[in-house]
């Protein structure tokens, strides 16, 4: 296949975790890739790894906190490839403390990366996606099923993303653009290790965020394969089938029917850890630096 005939897939947060695994899987499918992330060295290393597969790989180092980044990323991709067929909004990060302890600047960064950037990237890409009858794939989270403070504003950004995802799917349906939401649940990536870097020296992060047991987590390569299949066979919503996702959904359903039950259950858990002193970490929390985790 001629390089110009291949589909062009733009992936954010591609330097690690699901993003990097997804780039490898899409490359094996023979698609051209535009990869973006903050860590330019890791991004370029991945691009060098994938180019021998016979595809064209464009590395676009960028920080999605920058308001100009979405326009620049889409612009460079279109300039290089002539268009975009698929946008995959993967980049995102969590904070290892309850909302009241989070630094306001970190919260603003989280909103920019997890929620604002996907919307603006899609807004910039839509004309090109309409021209090619393309696809948008947004990476959400199963945590939205049960509202809690374990990840501060993280769940709110993912809930907002899910609402916008459905609204955008309905807006673009008649124009030939497919819009998909993926809820991967816990995945074996750098996410939980990276969260630990935010904990104060000699302390612990929010105990509600302890890494799930192995039987609860999905393999990153398997998740990447499932997401990559959406390029050819898009669906409205994809939930990776691990046992922790469906109990969360069942709990969320119960708490919507009986809100008081959710208030009692989750408030009791927070109160338990607060009494033990495990939630008092905000004053010593480290800056985000380069360890920002992705979902």
Topology of helices and strands:
Elements: E1 8-12, H1 17-28, E2 32-37, H2 40-50, E3 57-61, H3 69-81, E4 86-89, H4 104-132, E5 135-139, H5 154-172, E6 178-183, H6 191-196, H7 220-229, E7 237-239, H8 245-257, H9 259-275
Parallel strand pairs: 1-2, 1-4, 2-3, 4-5, 5-6, 6-7
Helix pairs in contact: 1-7, 3-4, 4-5, 8-9
Strand order of the largest sheet: 3-2-1-4-5-6-7
Number of helices, counting only DSSP H or I runs of 4 residues or more: 9
User: What helical percentage do the residues reach?
Assistant: 40-55%
Strand content: 5-15%
Q: Based on Cα principal axes, name the global outline.
A: globular
Domain count: the total is 1
Explain what this protein looks like in three dimensions.
The chain is 44% helix and 12% strand. The C terminus is likely disordered. By secondary structure, the chain is of the alpha/beta class. Strand 2, helix 2 and strand 3 form a beta-alpha-beta unit.
